[in-house]
Design brief:
This protein is α+β, with helices and mostly antiparallel strands. Helix content is 33%, strand content 20%. The strands form 8 sheets. Strands 4-3-2-1-5-6 form a 6-stranded mixed beta sheet, sandwiched between helices. Helix 15 packs antiparallel against helix 16. The two termini are 43 Å apart.
């Protein structure tokens, strides 16, 4: 996502905060909450909704700013502590790492008892505000909904996006919208509801078999929807916008501003997800005297478990993508031996190789091409100011992906530029052992990400090392590259089900020095018990990503015989699967890159 520059005559953050504080004081608040989200709770937000970025200059995809009368704080998690400290003005904001402190603790220390804190009810879920209210109850601090005060002082706020909406064919989705709505209507009726409210654009895109491009990297149209208990659905969009001829007749569209008022016609009991829907929806239904069935968005789990058609498509997309990445890696190997290449050149070249497939619709996120110390910034994004030349003896971390009609990809590789040093190789091999542990894992049905996450960290923990991000996230089918509810993380309780796609991406980061991450995507499927087994139903991962792992960084003596066999099998299969999509020059490089470890 683009950052918010403070040059070129635009107001700096200190001026913005000064104007915002004047509004906070006028409305009688002691502070105001500014999250990095929109009404749809997506990881990516349109420029017009990036209030956190506009206010602070922070370009990360997660964070919360609290602007009080005499101070301001930006809360970020472990992925963004380095990035935030670089991007925000230290004299205006303090940066708080959520690993070492809490939002509630900050409020109790810095906001007087009895104070009122304002928040935009469109930008926070009921669950989120409920947890915060409960934690602040003893302190006497009250949270009050209000219109967004940032919008009052954001004079040049961009217009909302209105991309073309097009149909997603059943030949790729594997199921008609009629069938999906029938299934989701059954869930709605089972909850005793007359209708279901949906506020997640990817849920609506999946349900209606439509796509858009309102957000970079995410083929969705920002929308709300109301589906009745028979499956009839109204979709609310920013209008005017174009609709392709392949959009089905079932798409009943109304202006987005009509969404709230139309809740009055939805029925007496409405299914709403407290973890994804804005507080505004619940407040309005309460004013109408309607009953609310608080249940998960019925599309979330159904969307996450891919059907055979979707899995076949994503396998094809990964083969195409793997060949494009191999072409890029062959190019990079040649370039770094002849001249200095920059991070921005790396990102541009990789995007170009994907585009040459003729099938790329978009990148699935902004490419992370981070060399040397920049790779220690987990979600680094190269800019003209930070752009580095690749130096011999350093590591290059490349995290990237593509959006193709038949699938969404996400792959990370760490590459040695020249000859790596011993510490690079030792740390890399520990990370690789974690990836292999998960790739080879088998578990009883009913387990979740929290049961498997430690497998990726075990070898790092033995060395007193760790990483401060989740081990894996769900991935959509030509939808969001980060998709719930499945995750590989210590706090994820979502059961893994066949058809779920997850990333496996352990890493290690040494601030100011280097960063390492290796990532493959895999699909959950029933385990093939060659040696028999008892009566337990077992699951395992099947790999989707086919891109070589840098053999120069592997310390052979640290690997078991099973791990060596896994790497050789992986590379042998990679060569077999993607060589037909590569040029002769890339095949020559690929053959060397996939050679047995020996």
């Amino acid at each position: 996502m683009p950052g918010f520059e403070h040059a070129g005559g635009r107001q700096d953050t200190a001026t913005r905060i000064q104007k915002l504080r004047a509004r906070i004081t006028r409305f009688g608040f002691s502070a105001f909450l500014i999250p990095r989200t929109d009404a749809h709770r997506g990881e990516q937000v349109a420029d017009c909704d990036n209030r956190l970025g506009w206010t602070t200059g922070f370009s990360g995809s997660a964070g919360l700013c609290v602007v009080a009368i005499d101070r301001a704080v930006l809360f970020v998690d472990g992925r963004y502590t380095l990035q935030a400290s670089i991007e925000v003005e230290g004299s205006t904001f303090e940066v708080s790492d959520l690993r070492h402190g809490s939002i509630v603790g900050w409020f109790k220390e810095n906001v007087h008892s009895g104070s009122e804190v304002g928040f935009d009810p469109w930008l926070h879920t009921k669950s989120e505000i409920g947890r915060l209210e409960q934690s602040l109850a003893e302190s006497g601090i009250r949270l009050l909904p209000a219109h967004n005060l940032v919008d009052d002082v954001w004079d040049d706020r961009p217009d909302p996006p209105r991309s073309r909406v097009f149909g997603y064919p059943e030949s790729l989705s594997g199921e008609s919208s009629v069938s999906k709505r029938s299934r989701m209507a059954e869930v709605t009726r089972s909850a005793g509801a007359d209708a279901a409210v949906m506020t997640l654009p990817d849920s609506i895109a999946w349900l209606m078999n439509i796509r858009g491009s309102d957000l970079l990297g995410s083929p969705v149209a920002l929308s709300f929807a109301i589906m009745d208990s028979k499956g009839d659905t109204t979709v609310y969009l920013e209008l005017p916008r174009q609709f392709s001829d392949d959009v089905g007749p079932a798409l009943n569209v109304r202006p987005k501003n009509d969404f709230i008022q139309d809740l009055a016609k939805a029925g007496e009991t409405i299914l709403v997800d407290p973890d994804t829907a804005p507080v505004m929806v619940f407040d309005h239904l309460q004013k109408l005297g309607r009953s609310v069935a608080e249940q998960p968005d019925p599309c979330i789990l159904a969307k996450s478990t891919k059907n055979p058609t979707e899995l076949s498509g994503t396998e094809t997309a990964h083969l195409r993508d793997g060949a494009a990445v191999a072409e890029f890696l062959a190019w990079l190997d040649c370039q770094v031996s002849e001249r200095n290449v920059t991070e921005l050149e790396v990102a541009s070249a990789l995007a170009d190789f994907r585009a040459r497939t003729g099938e790329l619709r978009d990148l699935s996120f902004s490419t992370i091409a981070a060399s040397g110390p920049n790779a220690a910034i987990v979600h680094y994004s190269a800019s003209p100011e930070s752009n580095r030349k690749l130096e011999m003896g350093e590591l290059l971390l490349i995290d990237s992906g593509g959006q193709y009609l038949d699938g969404t990809t996400d792959v990370t590789r760490t590459i040695a530029i020249g000859e790596p040093d011993g510490e690079h190789c030792v740390c890399f091999t520990r990370v690789l052992k974690g990836l292999i542990s998960l790739a080879r894992a088998r578990w009883p049905k009913g387990r979740a990400g929290r049961h498997l996450d430690a497998l990726a960290r075990y070898h790092l923990w033995l060395a007193g090392q760790d990483f401060d991000h989740g081990t894996g996230h769900g991935v959509g089918q030509f939808l969001n590259v980060h998709e719930g509810p499945q995750r590989l993380a210590h706090n994820s309780g979502c059961e893994f089900l066949p058809g779920m796609i997850l990333s496996i991406e352990p890493g290690y980061y040494r601030s100011g020095k280097f960063g390492i991450r290796i990532e493959n995507l895999a699909v959950v499927e029933p385990a093939c018990l060659v040696d028999g087994g008892d009566d337990r139903e077992m699951l395992e991962f099947r790999n989707l990503t086919w891109v070589p792992i840098d053999r120069k960084l592997i310390v052979l003596e640290m690997l078991t015989s099973e791990e060596r066999r896994w790497i050789d099998d992986y590379h042998g299969t990679t060569l077999e699967k993607i060589r037909s999509g590569c040029s002769a020059q890339a095949v020559s490089w690929l053959t060397r890159a996939c050679a047995p470890l020996g």
